[in-house]
Amino acid sequence: MNTKLREMLKFPCFFTYKIIGLAQPELIDQIIKVIQIQIPGDYTPQIKSSNRGNYLSVSITICAKNFEQIEILYREISKINIVRMVL
Fold first, then answer.
1. Which of 21, 33, 37, 51 pairs with 76 at a CA distance of 20 to 30 A?
2. pLDDT per residue over 74-87, tens digit each?
3. φ and ψ of 31, to 5 deg
4. What's the domain range around 32?
5. Is 40 exposed, middle or buried (0-12, 13-18, 19+ CB in 10 A)?
6. Do residues 27 and 16 lie in contact, with contact meaning Cβ atoms separated by under 8 Å?
7. What Pfam families does this protein map onto (predicted)?
8. Domain of residue 41, CATH code
9. Domains contained in the chain, number
């Protein structure tokens, strides 16, 4: 699958991550901080709360210059302790 995605994308391109994490105030700041290290810029995430309010779904779009940026961000966002899933 990694090879197919790599072949489908033409760089630079916009790429959206969907992140599911615990509904804690620092979640958004931690995600943006990780992204800012790799790709500085202004980001406006879309945020939705789960039905019970325990989780947040965060969609954030970046402009990637190469496939390695996409992979690095996926790994780094996944390392945030209150993140449960990165799509």
1. 51
2. 999 999 999 999 99
3. -65, -50
4. 3-86
5. exposed
6. no
7. DUF493
8. 3.30.70.260
9. 1
